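Page 47, continued from p. 46.
Same chain as before, 403 aa.
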Amino acid sequence: MRSLRARWYALADRVDAATPADRDRTVDALRALAILGVVLGHWLVTALTTADGGLKTTSPLSLMPWLAPVSWVFQTLAVFFLVGGHVAARGHAAARERGLSYGAWVGQRLSRLFRPVAAVLAVWAVAAAGMLLGGAEQQTVHALLRLVLSPLWFLLVFAVLTAATPLVARLNPLWPLAVVAGVDMWRFGPGAPAWVGWVNVAAGWLVPYTLGAAWSRGAFTRRTPAALLLGGGAAGTAALVLWGGYPASMVGVPGAAISNLNPPTLAAATFGLAQCGLVLLLREPVARAVRRPRWWAAVGLANLSAMTIFLWHQTAMMAVTTLGLLAPADLPGLHTVPDSPEWIAARLLWLPVFAAALAVCWTAFRAYEQARRPRRGAPSRAVAGSAGPDAERAATEEMIAHA
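Result:
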């Protein structure tokens, strides 16, 4: 144990030394926190229970509505779009200064996003076919595929907004917020067409994305604008939930008449404003934390594999759940109905097991995200890997420093 700790400290010190002095570590930390929130949120509010010999998806939020505040902590997509808008706007401006074409810039941005997606789709296409041929219940296969594929909408929206960065980077966030409000008034009124709500899939996430672009231009150098976002967003969300008929949960709940996420509602947009205001106010404490080499190394490594973690965390949970079916009885917190505090306690004990399974997925598939052309004069990843652990660590530090 002491040897592992010493090796980690040594690696952390080298990563810290390899990081450019002008790199904004806070941005990386906020992205890592956003991904961590999504992962833990899914693991806590998604349950696969045994039903009719198969697996059925349910949620403790539908059976224990008093857990809604959990979604306020772990629904962190607005933070991810905030960081995405900030990084994309800043990166596009830097690319223009270097004379890089739009096509080259957007190709670089999207390639890292979609390489790991291809791996997930390929693996699950084979897995689904194998389960059906092996006699698995269609309900079980459908439930598993839905959990795997449903988060991909988020990446598609993120890719579209990234590609549209030159057009939307200077858009005032109040404009997409007004669109969300108008769409909600229309779709919740009598005779509204079913499709109109899906306009908010773009407009709703454009709100934090354009806030991030404004951040890149120095809009939040003072604390007052961030405080106004926090206060106004929180007050607006509370009013919409208490008097506007919007659900308190900020994630979808099976069986609920309205979901705040599918598609995003005005309550989700105002909640995102509050969330963005909060993290912008916390930039200084976060910056102090990631100036410490150990914290920064953890953040840097997490950012190298952010999409891998996001794409495979549901697979990790499902792998543990399906393997648990080999037990002679349903395992508490894994297969049992999520309708009691005992289920919550049992579920918390399963989180380290899910994390271990995710580590296995990360080991197997991280290369699809981290693959990149070596810089001129630098050894390739294959050469670095064959040269031993020291060279592999050096390659990792290089990627963190220039990610």
